Amino acid sequence: MDRLTIKPRFKDSPHFKDFWEKGNGKQLIEFSGAEVSFKDFDKFSHYFYHVDTLGDEVVRDVYLVKKFHEASREIEGYIRNGIPEAEDVPESVKNLFTQTQQIPEWLDYSLLKSGAELCMRSNLDSLISLRDYCLMGGYDYAYLNKPLTATEALKKGAVKRLSETLDFWVNVTRYDALELHAKGYEFAVKTRLIHSYARLSIKKHYRQWDAENWGEPINSWDMMATYIGFSLVFLHSLQKLGNTFSVEEEKGIFHLWKYVGYLLGIPEELLPDNKKQATEYFYLWTSVQPPSDKDSILLAHSLLNESLENPILKFRFQRKNLRYLHICCTWFLLDDEVCKRLQIPDVPNRKLFPKTKILINTIYDKLVSRDARIKKGNKSQMKVLEDYLKITKNSNFH
């Protein structure tokens, strides 16, 4: 098969049709006003075999010729201070930083601020959305998860994986986080190089990689889908949980993730400006993804059981209760068919917690000012991150 002639091979499959005709996909179309079709499929499909060559070259020139900690320290210095003119650095490093330090003409700082404020204002609902809809829902796309299997992410454990995702998300969604040399900018560039390092490792060591069917490891099209998870899917989840947002905040969330995507080396034509575009792009991508497989189920259950393994809560009954609440939210936010495929356990009174949350959000929205909610949300999210980092950084926690 010619790699550039990939077809929407799962468009007639039951999982694809159920999602877009009856499930969350149908809701996304209604939510966004999208007009879905396959007319632009060929415009996007070749990105299934496209990767961030700039990032890969830096890894080859720096990380693969030095000790890992030395390479990391060197790159960290360039991220925080720029490249000293007198210093002899590889051309690939200069090229990468030329791109990431070039502010795109479309960047609007007021929209970045609005996007960051929505992330903070939504408080713990943001974290529920990321975990129980974006991350768990992503496990239903079997090929998307193959790099996690290939890099043995399951052995690292869900607590560590969740901690890393949270660290990234919190740090790129604060005020002024994406200014050059600021902390969010640093996280974006480091994450980009981690992706390249993982991709080169998979290509070298994982002989079973099926590029024809799965695409290149951590390819640009999969990256697009992941970042649509942080914008479109995240917004949809907030709405399901009874949160409201202004037109400005909605534009802001897409703008923020468009810029993060730009820093991560995702081609600009894959980065949507609004929910209509995002839904239309996402529709095309889902047509090349089969439903959950055995690896998906392992990943889903690892995430579910994270609450039991995580020592943040002291007593076992607290951990079991937290797991129960996450299961309730997962069933509420995802389609029943997806939950069944991922073998999410059924639990009694599963709608009670989400429905209570909607009621509380409706009241809270009316009684508490926007500024107070932003401050409170920021404080709560930082506390959760702090707790996670304490366990994962100060111990050999797996």
UniProtKB/TrEMBL annotation:
Residues 156-349 form the ER-bound oxygenase mpaB/mpaB'/Rubber oxygenase catalytic domain. GO terms for molecular function: oxidoreductase activity. Pfam families: MPAB_Lcp_cat. This is ER-bound oxygenase mpaB/mpaB'/Rubber oxygenase catalytic domain-containing protein. It comes from Chryseobacterium luteum.
